[in-house]
Design goal:
Alpha-Beta Plaits; 2 domains; four-stranded antiparallel sheet; 4 strands; transmembrane helix; FtsX_actino; cell membrane; cell cycle; Cell division protein FtsX
């Protein structure tokens, strides 16, 4: 089997069915882009969890003048109540669960608020009196949050105990839903790509039925007849997979590395390194789908 002959046949087939080849490339590109996006989303969730779960704290918000919680019937937290809460945080009963804690006054709270929302127009409308005092608690094991909540939520002077992980979980759940949607769209598009590859190969085999008939008569092997058609599908899918990898790389490079990572320096974002981890799998998936689809089609429409 001569490689030059095989490549010539592949090139001839791609030229004859150019419009169909372009369709396969585009559908493969779109479907694998969705697959890659879903994979990168999951990597982002994993990276953010690993980064933030060790940093998030439990916030014990203390009663203010206008709180109506069951522990705030006497009004704002008193010095004595605040001292009892601090003593409990430093007690031997709580020590196995608490890694460290710090008190945040109203003045410190408004300072932190203005730092976090420096680009927002509402920073000048928020005053220290509107924000509560709190204790920020870092846990030895973040999964033991319920123990801290049970211990402190019933203490006088405590308005509410909040696990900041709950806020992160909402963000992660949104990303996970987006990943599932992307996978669903990718599944539909992959099915379209498989059908298009099969249609393209069937059309190519029909157009070249005379050449394949002559090759049969001169004793051409089954593999030499089928290989050019299989390679046509693989080449089309390969181009689509490379385009998908390129678009994902550009999105991460310019949108995440070039913008989001610079604006939100305290957030752990994925980088182009993750794209290079995903891209080979996209290429492999595209090649396998095209190869299998081509072989199944040839078995039905190119009897040897």
């Amino acid at each position: 089997m001569k490689i030059g002959f095989i490549l010539g046949e592949v090139g001839s087939g791609l030229r004859r069915n150019l419009s169909m080849v372009v369709s396969v490339v585009l559908v493969t590109f779109i479907s694998l882009t969705f697959v890659g996006t879903a994979a990168l989303m999951q990597m982002q969730v994993t990276q953010m969890k690993g980064y933030w779960y060790d940093k998030v704290q439990v916030a014990i918000y203390l009663c203010g003048e206008h709180n109506e919680g069951t522990n705030c019937t006497t009004g704002a937290v008193s010095e004595g109540q605040r001292g009892e809460i601090e003593s409990m945080l430093g007690s031997s009963a709580v020590k196995p669960y608490v890694d460290s804690f710090e008190y945040e006054s109203k003045e410190q709270a408004v300072t932190h608020f203005r730092e976090q929302f420096s680009n927002s127009s509402m920073i000048d409308t928020v005053t220290a009196d509107q924000l509560p005092e709190s204790f920020r608690v870092s846990l030895v094991d973040p999964e033991k949050y319920q123990i801290i909540k049970e211990l402190f939520s019933s203490m006088d002077g405590v308005d509410v105990v909040v696990d900041q992980r709950e806020l992160l979980e909402k963000v992660f759940s949104i990303i996970n839903i987006a990943s599932v949607v992307a996978i669903g769209i990718a599944g539909v598009m992959i099915l379209c790509a498989v059908l298009l590859v099969g249609t393209t190969i069937r059309l190519s085999a029909y157009l070249r039925r005379r050449e394949t008939g002559i090759m049969r008569l001169v004793g051409a092997s089954k593999s030499s007849l089928q290989l050019p058609f299989v390679l046509e599908g693989i080449v089309s899918a390969l181009i689509g997979a490379l385009l998908a990898g390129g678009v994902l790389w550009a999105a991460v490079k310019f949108l995440i590395d070039g913008k989001l990572a610079l604006e939100y320096k305290d957030t752990a974002f994925i980088s182009t390194g993750e794209v290079f981890m995903v891209a080979p799998w996209l290429i492999l998936l595209g090649v396998i789908l095209a190869g299998v689809s081509s072989l199944v089609t040839l078995r039905r429409y190119l009897k040897v």
